Write the structure tokens for this entry.
Amino acid sequence: MNFDYANPYLSTRLPVFARNVVSTSHPLAAQAGLRMLWKGGNAVDAAVAAAAAMTIVEPVSNGLGSDAFCILWDGKELHGLNASGRAPQTWTPDYFKAKYGAEAKNPPKRGFDAVTVPGAVSSWVALSERFGKLPFADLMEPAIEIAERGYLLPTVVQQKWAAATDELRGLPGFADAFLPWGRAPQVGELFRFQSAARGLRAIAETKGQAFYGGQIAEAIERFSARHGGSVTARDFAEYRPEWVKPIAQNYRGYTLHEIPPNGQGIAALIALGILENFDIASLAVDGIDSQHLQIEAMKLAFADVYRYVAEPSAMEVTPQQMLDPAYLASRAKLIDMKKAQDFGAGNPVKGGTIYLTAADEDGMMVSFIQSNYMGFGSGCVEPEFGISLQNRGHGFSLDASALNPANLVAPGKRPFHTIIPAFLTQNGQPVMSYGVMGANMQPQGHMQTLVRMLDYRQNPQAACDAPRWRYNAGLEINVEAAMRADTVQGLAERGHVMEVINDSYQDFGAGQFIWRAGDPKVEGYVVASDPRRDGLAAGF
């Protein structure tokens, strides 16, 4: 790809060019990954070390009790890993309705009844065992050091930390872990997380066994029982991550790969499959027509995703049916270039997150994402080992008559999931590992940045810096303040309900991109990191 390296946007960063690279949303995590590469490790070692460090330096967005997904190129082929959590064996609609009333539509947003079995630690172990070069304990060393020594709180993390304080202060273990002075740490203030260091040491010494059925699982069971939860050490012991084959969509001579359901990555594939029916490159990159077309394609994608996507065994349609070219062409015909629409689902039947990426000079590339879902997840923090638990259970439905009955809660089931890593190939060869953060912003960011790179030849950093929009529901669209005023006005005239947002971090995600320029030993990689976070792309 011959990129245009002129960057027309205000939030300009320069891309990094290197043969071994790590890109994360926190400099200390990027450095943790680089340490592994300097020690002779590979991209998987770097990604796992960075992921462990991220649980300490950005606990708002992820923790030791998070879920994770990964797509990686091992040098020969692509692999997918689904490490999303499963429901405790006690969870049924009746369990929740007995506790929260017959009118309850979802499990609670916070507390132990929002906690599914966390999968992130299992993903670290699985990746290390299958593809890593260094001993697993080595990968935990940087995170342990950061947790014990402490780190100075950066601006963006502090803002979200402080914003969550009032809602979460009274939840089990939260104040002791994250309000060390009775308040959120201030910018530049030293924060230590000694209990998480103990948890990381136990994970390192046992290769995760302490977490899944050992002393950490037992501590979580006791903690849960004291605070009204029902998750058990047996639920943890029975948990296994799943190796999966990524699903794919061709676009402009390239192929985008996503993890299959229960995640929402298929939304990006559907939207691109719809856009494949239009000559979007003929439209001005930041103009009204291009943005309108992308918004409408994304809305059509979400209409189907919210109706059909769930745990695969429960879905009434397959991903292949949802991605059928003829079906997507029929959906494309619904777009009116002069009018915004509120689309319903079609019928395809015939008849609070961190993202990081790493790559090495031997060609291994890792696209990795982990999350506690909403800020600080469930708000529950096991005190002995510092396990900050996610709240993915809130994503289940309790009503069989809901829009998507396939997402009804059941024992051992995985809920609809928002976090999605992405990977781009061309003719079966690796091109780019990338991803963005932020709930339903993720597939929207995958699509918007890829269109900029493939249709408009913007380099990865410019595509990352460019102003974004975010579809919410109905006709509601949020846009970043940097978007052209005439484009915002033109979209409003077509019926989009536009709201200009100044807080980019909260609404438009952040991303990391590694584009393979050729032979990694010679041409290396082009690496971008998002200005919406305190991130760093670093390499050598």
Remarks:
- DSSP finds 18 helices and 21 strands in the chain.
